[in-house]
Design goal:
Blueprint (H helix, E strand, L loop, with lengths): L3 E7 L4 H13 L4 E7 L5 H11 L2 E4 L16 H6 L4 E5 L2 E5 L1 H13 L8 E5 L3 H12 L4 E5 L3 H14 L4 E4 L12 E6 L19 E9 L8 H8 L3 E3 L1 H17 L5 H15 L1
Parallel strand pairs: 1-2, 1-3, 6-7, 6-9, 7-8, 9-10, 10-11
Antiparallel strand pairs: 3-4, 4-5
Length: 281
C-alpha cells in the first residue's frame, strides 16, 4: 500500500496531537506519514506554495486559519461564509479548502443535544478562526444570541461587524473584559478559544461563572493541560466541561473521513489523545 504523506504548516505546531493521529491511522491499516513545517507569518504564503509542491494533503495550523482562505479561489459557499479553514487537499490537480474543525464542532453541538438551551446566549472568548467555527456551529442549531469577549477589542469588533453581514436574525454583542464579572446568568454555554498563557488575564474573569445559566456547559480549546483552571473550576460546581483533546478528536475524525474516506472510532482515538496528553503534563 502506498503511504499517504501529509503535513501541518503552522507557527504553533500541533505535533503531539498529529503524531497520535498518525499512529492511529497506521494502527488501523492506513499507511500514513506526517511531517511538520514551522513558519512565521511573514513567510507563510511562500512556504505554503512550497509545501503544495510536495504534499497532496495539508493541515493548516495556528495562526493561519483565517489568512489561508484569501489565497485560494473557488471556495464553497459555506467556507466563504465561515472565512476559516484548517486543511487543504488536492483532487484532480485542484486544491480544496475545508474546515474539519467546523464539521467537528457541529457534531459536538449535536452530541450535547438536549442539554443545550436555545433560549440562552453563548459566550465566546476569542475572535480568531476557532471563534468563527464555534459561532457558526451554534447558529446552525438555532442559537440567536452570541456574546463575544476578547483581549484585543478592535479584533472582536471587526469580527462582529463581519458576522452581522453574514448571519441575519442573530444578535451579536461585544463584552469588554471588565464587564465579565457583572454579566447576568443568561449564557447557556461558554467557549474559550484563547490560549492558557501568561498575560491572558481575560480568563480570570471567567472563573466566577456568574454569566452562566445552570446547568451550563463549558468548552475549552486548550489542548495541554487536560484539566485547565477553567475546566476544574467548572466541574467543581457541577458544570459539564468539554476538554480540548475531546474537541480535537471530533475535528480530526471529520478530517480523516473527508480526506481519506476512513470511518474510524472517534471515542477510541479520543482516549489515545487523553492518555498522551496525560503523559506529557
Amino acid at each position: 500500500m502506498k503511504k499517504s504523506r501529509w503535513v501541518e504548516i503552522a507557527k504553533n505546531r500541533s505535533e503531539v496531537r498529529f503524531q497520535v493521529l498518525n499512529e492511529y491511522l497506521n494502527d488501523n491499516g492506513f499507511a500514513s506519514e506526517v511531517n511538520f513545517v514551522e513558519v512565521e507569518p511573514a513567510q507563510f504564503e511562500d512556504k505554503l506554495k512550497e509545501v503544495t509542491q510536495e504534499y497532496d494533503v495539508i493541515r493548516i495550523g495556528s495562526p493561519y486559519g483565517q489568512s489561508v482562505t484569501s489565497l485560494f479561489d473557488g471556495q464553497s459557499t459555506e467556507l466563504r461564509t465561515l472565512k476559516a479553514a484548517d486543511c487543504l487537499w488536492k483532487v484532480k490537480d485542484r486544491w480544496t479548502l475545508m474546515s474539519a474543525n467546523h464539521i467537528g464542532m457541529q457534531r459536538i453541538v449535536l452530541d450535547i443535544g438536549k442539554q443545550l438551551d436555545l433560549e440562552t446566549s453563548v459566550l465566546v472568548v476569542g475572535a480568531g478562526a476557532g471563534a468563527r467555527v464555534c459561532i457558526s456551529a451554534f447558529i446552525r442549531v438555532g442559537v440567536k444570541k452570541i456574546n463575544i469577549t476578547n483581549k484585543f477589542v478592535e479584533q472582536a469588533k471587526e469580527l462582529i461587524d463581519d458576522l452581522r453581514k453574514t448571519y441575519f436574525g442573530v444578535e451579536f454583542e461585544f463584552i469588554p473584559e471588565e464587564r465579565l464579572v457583572l454579566l447576568p446568568g443568561t449564557n447557556g454555554v461558554l467557549v474559550n478559544t484563547t490560549p492558557l498563557a501568561v498575560g491572558n488575564d481575560l480568563l480570570k474573569g471567567l472563573y466566577y461563572f456568574n454569566f452562566l445559566k445552570s446547568p451550563g456547559i463549558v468548552m475549552d480549546f486548550t489542548f495541554v493541560p487536560i484539566d485547565t483552571p477553567l475546566v476544574m473550576e467548572a466541574e467543581q460546581i457541577g458544570i459539564r466541561a468539554v476538554r480540548g483533546y475531546e474537541i480535537s478528536s471530533w475535528g480530526d475524525m471529520a478530517w480523516v473521513e473527508s480526506c481519506f474516506g476512513l470511518h474510524l472510532k472517534r471515542e477510541e482515538y479520543c482516549e489515545r489523545l487523553r492518555k498522551k496528553v496525560s503523559e506529557i503534563e
